[in-house]
Structure formats: structure tokens, C-alpha cells
Amino acid sequence: MSANSADRPRPVGVVLVKAGRTKIRYPAELLEDDGTRVVVRAPWAGDGVRDFGFVRFEAGDVFTEYYWRDRWYAVKEVRDGRGVLKGWYCDITRPVTFLDGELVVEDLDLDLWRSPDGRSVLRLDEDEFAVSGLAAADPAAADAAARALDALELLAREGGFEALLA
Fold it and tell me: Collapsing DSSP states into helix, strand and coil, what is residue 72?
């Protein structure tokens, strides 16, 4: 399914799973599904304000979220309520599954932030990833996650990031 100007986005659910438990579930609008990449839009679903120091997520923010069935990451474009780009928050995840109207996303702890101008690219939560136990429990997944973070960082720093989302 591909959404175009004649199509209305349809409602879907996004389920974020971490360490085998549902961390958050929230409604979104399906904008595109080409069989490989799924794009949804959703308002900030967190409780209150989340201040990372380099960005604040808060009520009114809108996330356009890009997921892949064949890649180990998700990219979330974040805009404030007026449409001003805040940047991109990227989660390292297992490839997404889409089942019964819900996108199921397994978060693997590693994250990346890219500022709107591309000057700031931050690797996040590597300490959480190190103690998550994934390397012992599923070494192949841990390796895929680390490689995905490296590949995404390279795109964010050296070009090709915007093309990934086009």
C-alpha cells in the first residue's frame, strides 16, 4: 500500500518492545508501505517532556517514522507543532514486522541523533547495549545491531541520510 494524495492515511498501532516486554504502544497513521519500508506519522506519545539535553520531545511534536523489514534500524523525523524540524532520532532495532494492523518494533538499546543541520551526530546508549546481555544471548543480533549503528552514523555524517528517507 502506498499513500498518495488521493489516499487517506489509515490508522495503525506501533508497539515498541524492549527486552521482551512492551515498552509503549501508540496510534499512528500509515503513510506508506511499499513492502520493504513502512512510514507512519504519530504525535509524541511519551508522558510529559523528555529532555535529552540536545533535544526536547514534548506535547505537540510530530514524528514521521521510517521502518524497514530488511534493516536493523528505524529513523524518526521530529518536528515541533509548527512544523519546525528538530532533527532525527534513530533507533537500532530488529527489522520491523507488521501484523494485524500493528507495527512491532524490537528496540536493541542503541540510538543515534542527527541535528537538522547535520553538524551534530551523537551515538547514544552504547552503555545500555553493553549491559543488555544481547551479545551473549544472540551474538548475531548484537553484531547486526552494531553494524547498523555504524552504517547509519556513516550516512548521517557523510551524506545519503536524506536519500534514505526520500
Answer: coil
